[in-house]
Design brief:
With about 375 residues, this protein is of the alpha+beta class. The protein is built from ten helices and 18 strands. It has two domains: about 230 residues, Rossmann fold (3-Layer(aba) Sandwich); about 120 residues, RNA polymerase II/Efflux pump adaptor protein, barrel-sandwich hybrid domain (OB fold (Dihydrolipoamide Acetyltransferase, E2P), Beta Barrel), CATH 2.40.50. The N and C termini lie far apart (about 60 Å).
């Protein structure tokens, strides 16, 4: 389609990029480096305030850069106006004009550029057909569902012929069922169009479903970059392991380790192998049952561990709150954790980093 394939997708490179706001310390984004491959789907992931949306807005040209550079295919766009960058932004709220039809919303930027009505409506109609919205071209946003509004917003972003599409939490306003449906559509569109997508989200599940490359951020720094499989199965730091979920972080004599909760094993108390623990709660999750445990001889706020059991395994040997158990895992399933991102100038993080109390019992733990 001529409105989308006129230019090849761009590789994006971020070099020592920082953003400081007046009176704020530490910086919102702190000298980060990142390269995003041409034609890939990249998700910036992290909790609120980690710097992911600020980074996206700097790439878009909607936020000024304090220091560092942003390049598209080796072209420095750091200080170019948003319209001259080759990027387009798809906002969380969709930001559609309520008094305009879907067709006129999509065509609006071409109208501002002086493109004739016939031509801009032709191109807008073409894009609406591409996102399966051609039959609703004359409806206004208030007459469309959330998913339909998202399709219109996508078509409006694509009409500017971007080489990079920027998405700022585009699924957060949708209900859970529609969110799953629309993320599948986003992935399909990205593959069909061949564009570079940079997508900001706070949802681990969303990022793992969509991304070729996942970038986990914390306190304005990048904690880890990798494929979803690599990040989930080999977390680089305590923060990544805890934020991604599904891991237990334990402080062993050899240092911090992470073990996936579905790789942990429990057995009724009585043996010597493993760690003594007590069941605190049992949560049925359909195909799995999540068992909450408190390790013995540690403070309650430091000893929380979870084990994910297949439903059939739990049904064969059920546990209830208060039961004593022994906890173990295979050494091959334990992942050593590094210290995480370090601020370039030795500045403290914006908030406390949790660390469990040492578990002396781990020294004698047998798999």
């Amino acid at each position: 389609m001529d409105a989308v394939t006129a230019l090849p997708p761009a590789a994006v490179e971020i070099v020592a990029l920082s953003k400081r706001y007046a009176g704020s310390a530490p910086p919102a984004v702190d000298q980060i480096d990142l390269r995003i491959a041409s034609g890939s789907y990249c998700c910036l992931l992290g909790p609120s305030g980690c710097g992911k949306s600020t980074t996206l807005r700097m790439v878009a040209g909607h936020e000024s850069v304090t220091s560092g550079d942003i390049l598209l295919d080796n072209r420095n766009i750091t200080h170019l106006p948003a319209a001259a960058r080759g990027t387009a932004m798809m906002f969380q709220s969709f930001a559609l004009f309520p008094h305009l039809s879907a067709l006129d919303n999509v065509a609006f930027s071409l109208k501002m550029k002086g493109v004739s009505k016939v031509e801009r409506q032709r191109r807008a109609g073409q894009l609406l057909e591409r996102v399966a919205m051609g039959h609703l071209a004359q409806r206004k946003p208030g007459e469309l569902s959330g998913g339909q509004q998202q399709r219109v917003a996508l078509a409006r972003a694509l009409i500017t012929e971007p080489r990079v599409l920027l998405l700022d939490e585009p699924l957060s306003a949708l209900d859970p069922f529609l969110r799953i449906q629309m993320r599948a559509e986003l992935r399909r569109w990205q593959k069909e169009l061949g564009l570079t997508f940079i997508h900001v989200t706070h949802s681990q599940e969303e990022a793992m479903a969509l991304a070729d490359t996942m970038v986990v951020m914390n306190h304005g720094l990048i904690e880890q970059v990798g494929t979803p499989h690599a990040v989930y199965n080999h977390p680089a730091s305590e923060f990544v392991a805890r934020f991604m979920g599904g891991h237990n972080v334990l402080d062993t004599p050899g240092g911090l380790i992470a073990v996936r909760n579905d790789h942990m094993h429990i057995a009724p108390e009585g043996g010597d192998a493993g760690l003594a623990a007590r069941v605190t709660d049992v949560e049925y999750q359909g195909t799995y049952v999540l068992i909450g445990l408190q390790l013995a001889d540690t403070a309650p706020e430091r000893s929380g561990v979870s084990v994910l059991l297949p439903e059939k395994t739990f049904a064969a040997h059920p546990y209830t709150a208060g039961d004593g158990v022994r906890l173990s895992w295979s050494p091959s399933d334990a992942r050593a954790l590094g210290p995480g991102a370090v601020r370039p100038q030795g500045e403290p993080p914006a908030g406390p980093v949790s660390r469990p109390a040492p578990l002396s019992a781990l020294a004698a733990m047998a798999a």
